[in-house]
């Protein structure tokens, strides 16, 4: 568990981060979202002390970070940044091995870990191990960057706009991969972004920052359904709100018995996908499938009811 | 073999022949020699002159590289930034002094021989290496440095494992410049009795023997061209390893 306790950063006369407190539960993703200049990156960098807080403290599993020498603290915290920051003169394997090497892991343990991570990220170890970063595509570089941050099984992974340099299609895939890997490894992640869509898609909890203050912190449904103030509402986007809400709810909960014509949607899909299927093919209901078998249907009325009920 | 490879091999062979068997070239140089004068310089073996010439340049350039890179590392640290203008001025002064003046000033202190030449070459070699090293170390990719810091590398680990390897190609370009300047400038050292290939040229000038001048000049020139070429290729190899292709993005 990561506890951020009334942390503040003041540069000269400007308060960049103003008494922010939040708790990040182990094994969850917390996304901090805000416009540029909101203090979100400074907040993130105070967790691994790339920026020293002016006041307040951060505790990792109860241990106060101020009491740990910075280089040792940072070896315990994974750090992935926009544009990956890979070492261009080291191979993929050596890049991923960077922190384990600093920690003095034995060679064979490092080699096993590198192969394990490459496999986890869908990169054939034999084909990628000895390549240089310049020989990889943007998406591959980004994956190696995240693999490097995860290499030593850190207590916590910090990500600063990790997908910012990727085009939208690759970005969507990278987000799905991150979600899948996080669930598999049970990692604790704090991610910073300016993209509310990304925040809602990835976060177990979303923190919205404005002018150095944490203006709202809660599950994504709450941010979408009940924005704390006008700024959060604007970040969510009024016109987008129903769609964002629907994208958070799986079809599973609204399946009712009955038949419907046309192609089915899987029960794990979101209500947004189901609505889209209804509208696109002009149906009032679509069948729902689980593992290839139709288990019921979902109706347009049920979807509408769900949104009205929330708002 | 490529055209460049053929030319490189041919020039290397020519250089080796000129140094080891100078008398074989007597017919070529004969038209430039005074009547009944000697055509080929044979007071000292050209091989021993070449070796001492190269040794002098190597020693001066290594020393200059060591001092200049150390200085560049110091002034690119946050604590040393204040000394940047001063160190720039100092190395610039080294460059503005004509080497002959340095020799003239150094002789009274160091006596005749190799030492004043070494000092002149050293001072002359500092600037290009220092300027390149400083530029290289202060223009490294910021995200890579941020990642190195963020993963918990200490200062020395960052310097040795990240900053210097990434700066190496540009630093080496400075060393190359300094070596080539040194190869030419070392010839002047013979005026204060340093044993260099300048001896051949100066002997030619004193006795009005153009054959000697050509012979010495040709050997020094070939050394400069071939060493320059070898360093360029070394740089390219290091640059490849340092990921010169990192321009590829997204």
UniProtKB/TrEMBL annotation, chain A:
<feature type="domain" description="ABC transporter">
    <location>
        <begin position="2"/>
        <end position="236"/>
    </location>
</feature>
<protein>
    <submittedName>
        <fullName>Osmoprotectant transport system ATP-binding protein</fullName>
    </submittedName>
</protein>
<dbReference type="InterPro" id="IPR017871">
    <property type="entry name" value="ABC_transporter-like_CS"/>
</dbReference>
<comment type="similarity">
    <text>Belongs to the ABC transporter superfamily.</text>
</comment>
<keyword id="KW-0813">Transport</keyword>
<dbReference type="InterPro" id="IPR027417">
    <property type="entry name" value="P-loop_NTPase"/>
</dbReference>
<dbReference type="InterPro" id="IPR003439">
    <property type="entry name" value="ABC_transporter-like_ATP-bd"/>
</dbReference>
<dbReference type="GO" id="GO:0015697">
    <property type="term" value="P:quaternary ammonium group transport"/>
</dbReference>
<dbReference type="GO" id="GO:0016887">
    <property type="term" value="F:ATP hydrolysis activity"/>
</dbReference>
<dbReference type="GO" id="GO:0005524">
    <property type="term" value="F:ATP binding"/>
</dbReference>
<dbReference type="InterPro" id="IPR003593">
    <property type="entry name" value="AAA+_ATPase"/>
</dbReference>
<keyword id="KW-0547">Nucleotide-binding</keyword>
<keyword id="KW-0067">ATP-binding</keyword>
<dbReference type="Pfam" id="PF00005">
    <property type="entry name" value="ABC_tran"/>
</dbReference>
Automatic annotation (TrEMBL), chain B:
<keyword id="KW-1133">Transmembrane helix</keyword>
<dbReference type="GO" id="GO:0005886">
    <property type="term" value="C:plasma membrane"/>
</dbReference>
<dbReference type="InterPro" id="IPR035906">
    <property type="entry name" value="MetI-like_sf"/>
</dbReference>
<protein>
    <submittedName>
        <fullName>Osmoprotectant transport system permease protein</fullName>
    </submittedName>
</protein>
<feature type="transmembrane region" description="Helical">
    <location>
        <begin position="96"/>
        <end position="115"/>
    </location>
</feature>
<feature type="transmembrane region" description="Helical">
    <location>
        <begin position="56"/>
        <end position="75"/>
    </location>
</feature>
<dbReference type="InterPro" id="IPR051204">
    <property type="entry name" value="ABC_transp_perm/SBD"/>
</dbReference>
<feature type="domain" description="ABC transmembrane type-1">
    <location>
        <begin position="50"/>
        <end position="231"/>
    </location>
</feature>
<keyword id="KW-0812">Transmembrane</keyword>
<keyword id="KW-0813">Transport</keyword>
<keyword id="KW-0472">Membrane</keyword>
<dbReference type="Pfam" id="PF00528">
    <property type="entry name" value="BPD_transp_1"/>
</dbReference>
<dbReference type="GO" id="GO:0055085">
    <property type="term" value="P:transmembrane transport"/>
</dbReference>
<comment type="similarity">
    <text>Belongs to the binding-protein-dependent transport system permease family.</text>
</comment>
<feature type="transmembrane region" description="Helical">
    <location>
        <begin position="212"/>
        <end position="231"/>
    </location>
</feature>
<dbReference type="InterPro" id="IPR000515">
    <property type="entry name" value="MetI-like"/>
</dbReference>
